[in-house]
Amino acid sequence: MKKDINRIKTITDLNNKNEEYKKSGSQNMSEDFSQENQAALSKQPIVHVEDFTMAYTDKPVIWDIDLDIYENSITAIIGPNGAGKSTLIKGILRLLKPVSGRVLIMGKPYKEVYKNIAYIPQSGSVNWNFPTTVLDVVMMGRYTHLGLFKRPGKKEKELAFKALEKMKMVDFSDRQISELSGGQRQRVFLARAIAQDALIYFMDEPLQGVDIKTESIIVETMREFKKEGKTIIVVHHDLSTLEDYFDHVVIINKQLVAAGRTEDVFTKENLDVAYGE
Amino acid sequence: MDLSILKEYSFIVVAAGTVLLAMACGVIGTISILKGQSLIGDAVGHASLPGIILAFMISGQKNSIILMLGAIIAGIIAFLLIQIISDISKIEADTAMAIVLSAMFGLGMVLKSYIQGNAGYQRASQSGLASYIFGQAAYILKDDVTIIFIVSIIAIVLFILFYKEIKVYVFDEAYAGTIGIKKRLVSMLIMIMTMLLIAAGLKMVGAILISSMLINPAVTGLQWSKRYERVLIIATLSGGVSAFAGTFISSAFKGFSTGPSITLVMSAIALLSVLFSPRGIIAMRFWRRKMASEGSMVKR
């Protein structure tokens, strides 16, 4: 019962946030929110990328990408190794500086909306020997809501436990993070993102090298996010599961090859262009 | 051994300084170790020597604050040089540190021998400058301890205030960036804390061994616990205890410099921890053997 109330509360919260964003974003939305409008809403780009070029050295990794990612979609970013998939996400999230171009998220620059965004990095990018426990890592998801000098308290702990429950990791809450398997590590990351309670989730290869159980938990969570009105953007490498898991696809190979609904874009022609036959 | 030293005013002053400094270093040192940059303290410590000598040459005084400022400026220059070299060239950061460390320490030694016996720099006695290399508690004044006290408190308070941010930054830098933590600010904060501690501790511990204060207690802490809070407490305690013991040894026995004495005690504790802690070498060996024998029993 309590859970249901919480969920309803989250959904109303989300709707409120959506409305705010619509009001500030586009002017031509009609006043009443009928079913049709809700459907139209889902066609709204929540991430807008324009003339985006990124480079580590003198060679561009991402070249002049224009891209819209739609609200409430589960979007996969695919492409061959070195196509710049992770780099694109890092550029959108301002972790790396682009050479040129701009990004609008929910119609605003990243700085203004970062609290609505959760990022799940590749598990190799983290110092797993750091002396901390699973619960502690998940609580980090609340830091963005805490503000400077504030310590996480009872409420944060509760939210972290709820997230761990969803990931079936409660038994591990006291475990030192270095003692986890690859799949468990990924679930800890996802729990942290859940605790963060964002509107947009960016995941960098969350299904890379995880066990079947973890994969199904992660996919289940993505679907749940979608039901809650959230947007999920995932760097993905396994083309065989693409149609099952994702409703939108972005295909890149340094440049944008194609982007859109999976059934329209996930074609042999496009893949040939991206993966070079 | 003469235990009456313990009651001597000068010993109490010096011990208070080294203990507090070692405790603060224990806390801050965990950051550089967990970030995989243990050498940074070494590089900044060595690089501060020319700053001290130059500050003396320019000011003609051995005022602790002036010399400390020189050390800090040299430390910042070293830090920037390391960054520039590793950013612009293909040289890795640890190699860049080694280059800057040796070059600046070399410069410091050259400057020191240049002013030795040079009539132009006889306004103030140079004796005591050498203590910045190995550290000598005998030259410590109450002012020096006051500086150490202030700097250590600043470092610890900053660490406590920004604990959350520092922790995420060290554990998961990319994620920290996405939740609105200014990475540049945090890394600058860490650098400032490290440099202040090094500059304040130089006179006591010396440019060569100051980094051991940042490394050994932190290593000890990391051996005994897998919780960051506990690691910090253990690092603080082991730093404080070693500093006290080292200071006592250097005061009780003639010819023992303070820096090396403290370093020896710290290193011994760190080494024992690496050997005997629950996750230490010996425990690991034991578990491995136990597992192997149980495994072969199952097979039988």
What structural keywords apply?
heterodimer; A: 277 residues; alpha/beta; Rossmann fold; 2 domains; six-stranded mixed beta sheet; three-stranded antiparallel beta sheet; 12 helices; 41% helix; disordered N terminus; B: 300 residues; mainly alpha; ABC transporter involved in vitamin B12 uptake, BtuC; 13 helices; globular
Q: How does the SSE layout of this entry go?
A:
The complex is a heterodimer of chains A (277) and B (300).
Chain A: H1 2-25, H2 35-41, E1 45-55, E2 60-70, E3 74-78, H3 85-92, E4 100-105, H4 110-113, E5 117-120, H5 134-139, H6 143-146, H7 154-166, H8 182-196, E6 200-204, H9 212-227, E7 231-235, H10 242-245, E8 248-253, E9 255-261, H11 262-265, H12 268-275
Parallel strand pairs in A: 3-7, 3-8, 5-6, 6-7
Antiparallel strand pairs in A: 1-2, 1-4, 8-9
Helix pairs in contact in A: 7-8, 8-9
Chain B: H1 9-34, H2 39-59, H3 64-88, H4 93-115, H5 131-134, H6 142-161, H7 163-171, H8 173-178, H9 183-205, H10 210-224, H11 228-252, H12 258-276, H13 281-299
Helix pairs in contact in B: 1-6, 1-9, 1-10, 1-11, 2-3, 2-4, 2-9, 2-10, 3-4, 3-9, 6-9, 10-11, 10-12, 11-12
